[in-house]
Amino acid sequence: MHLRQLRYFVAIARQRHFARAAEECGVSQPTLSAGLSALEADLGHRLVERDRRFAGLTSHGEAILPWAEQILGAVGSMASTLSASAAPLGGEFSLMAIPAAQSLTGRFGEALLRRNPGLSLSVRSATSREIDRALHAFECDAGLTYLDHEPPANTLSIALDAERYLFVTRADGIDAAVTEASWQMIVSTPLCLLHQSMQFRRILDARMAALGTSIVPRAVADSYVVLLDMVRSGRFSTIIPHSYGELLQGLDWARFLPVADEGDARRIGLVVMNRSPLSAVVQAGLSAARDLVSEQV
């Protein structure tokens, strides 16, 4: 068994397509197929169902996939730790962030790169469930996500913010004397919201249920940019995290109102897998997060 064969297998499982997996691994499709066949021969079990195309993992393939991911992740962490022991930390820090936490990426990235000028930062948007899967599969170094609602399992975390709601509506569609949005006002307004695959929306729906009501939006999206553009059109209002309001203050067409009786603030922070030992790159991320916390005190 060779590491390259495990890389081929993990790439096939992730891409679910032989040509795309071969492209990811930088080899030809026949080379990838031959490596997979050799791995199956070594293990004595078929791992991938295939005819002329990928048809899924076998039960044996599903069983060994987490082990293959852990082996490759451990080898990568070992290599980065060895490099860090001889020179300043370099390479890429891979961060995944839920939309509600993306307004924190700038501050985190600045703290990380200030400490580690040899690093580069790669940020990807993801749902909380995608972050959980990616952390366990060694596909990212850290995530920015909710810490108290559906948190990833077996993680270390550092809280960076306590989210509050802002109601966003057209400035010319609301009395200037109104300084706070009640839930009664919100539910009576045509709304556009994140769809229910997004954790922000599921938490919001749970708050509505606790208050004995519900929100039925007229439109849904997976991007705050889309929601804000819908508000700008004049037909809709929306609800966003307060951190976005800080970025958007000064827009002459929008009003940002705090929400009355919104419940407890929701903690958002950095999460990494609780593995021993932690890689040098992951330790750098935790140190940057701690810097942010100390700056807020």
Task: Set out the fold topology.
Elements: H1 3-15, H2 18-25, H3 29-43, E1 48-50, E2 54-57, H4 59-86, E3 91-97, H5 105-115, E4 119-125, H6 128-136, E5 142-146, E6 155-163, E7 165-170, H7 183-187, E8 192-194, H8 199-210, E9 219-221, H9 224-233, E10 238-241, H10 242-248, E11 254-258, E12 266-273, H11 280-296
Parallel strand pairs: 3-4, 3-5, 8-9
Antiparallel strand pairs: 1-2, 5-12, 6-12, 7-10, 7-11
Structural class: alpha/beta
CATH homologous superfamily classification of the largest domain: Periplasmic binding protein-like II
CATH topology of the largest domain: D-Maltodextrin-Binding Protein, domain 2
Relative strand content = 15-25%
Mean pLDDT score, rounded?
88
Please name the CATH architecture of the largest domain.
3-Layer(aba) Sandwich
Highest CATH level, the class of the largest domain: Alpha Beta
The DSSP helix count reads 11
Shape field: globular
**Termini, distance in Å?**
51 Å
Order of strands, main sheet, comes to 4-3-5-12-6
Count of individual beta strands = 12
Rg, alpha carbons: 23 Å
Low-pLDDT residue spans: none
Give a short account of the largest sheet. 5 strands, mixed
State the helical fraction.
Answer: 40-55%
Keywords: DNA-binding, Transcription, Transcription regulation
Protein name: LysR family transcriptional regulator
InterPro entries: HTH-type_LysR_regulators, LysR_HTH_N, LysR_subst-bd, WH-like_DNA-bd_sf, WH_DNA-bd_sf
Organism: Blastomonas fulva
